[in-house]
Design brief:
Helix content is 17%, strand content 30%. The chain has 3 helices and 8 strands; from the N terminus they run βββαβββαβαβ.
């Protein structure tokens, strides 16, 4: 494939916290504490197969995960871009919020704020035209083929890409480090 695409990742009987455990969740976001259970999440990868971003949370099934991608595409213009530094490491991260809910987060940490903001803009410009690679559902648990747990009709579906929004970059909010400290 030579275009950006959404990949869906399934994990059987693991804590959903591992999806975002290695990176900060940003200001005003509490880490989820849940028991191990099957979950699905999405990643957006570029034409070079590098991760551009990932879902801000995990989902209980593929249907909800696909629905979240479609909803994020529709509301991309309304997303608020939050760029913040992790006080513990000094590395920069981004997230896209809609009504205070993280819809997408950076897949890695950045050394510089400008690189982080640029990466978020790249993510936002790729979302409207990215393909939905539902057939390439990845089971990272090693517990059998992912399509054994999900309906074949859902795996075979193709989602049309909506028209790109008028302003794919959105707004940037830089959070001062003083707001990231614990209260």
């Amino acid at each position: 494939m030579t275009e950006p695409r959404f990949l869906f990742v399934a994990r059987a009987w693991a804590s959903p916290d591992i999806w975002s455990a290695r990176k900060p969740l940003g200001p005003g976001t509490e880490p989820a504490t849940s028991s191990p259970c099957p979950w699905v999440a999405w990643r957006l990868v570029g034409a070079n197969n590098r991760e551009l971003g990932r879902s801000g949370r995990t989902f209980t099934d593929l249907t909800d995960c696909v629905r979240a991608v479609v909803e994020m595409r529709a509301l991309l213009v309304a997303c608020q871009r939050v760029v913040f530094a992790d006080p513990a490491t000094g590395s920069w991260h981004w997230k896209l919020d809609i009504d205070g809910v993280s819809r997408a987060v950076s897949g890695r940490a950045y050394h510089r704020q400008r690189e982080c903001a640029y990466s978020c803009a790249q993510f936002q410009s790729a979302v409207p035209t990215a393909a939905m690679a539902v057939r390439s559902l990845v089971d990272v648990s090693g517990g059998g083929a992912a399509d054994e747990r999900f309906p074949a009709a859902l795996l075979a579906m193709r989602m049309p890409a909506p028209r790109p929004p008028a302003d794919p970059v959105g707004r940037t909010v830089t959070v001062p480090e003083s707001r990231l400290t614990a209260r």
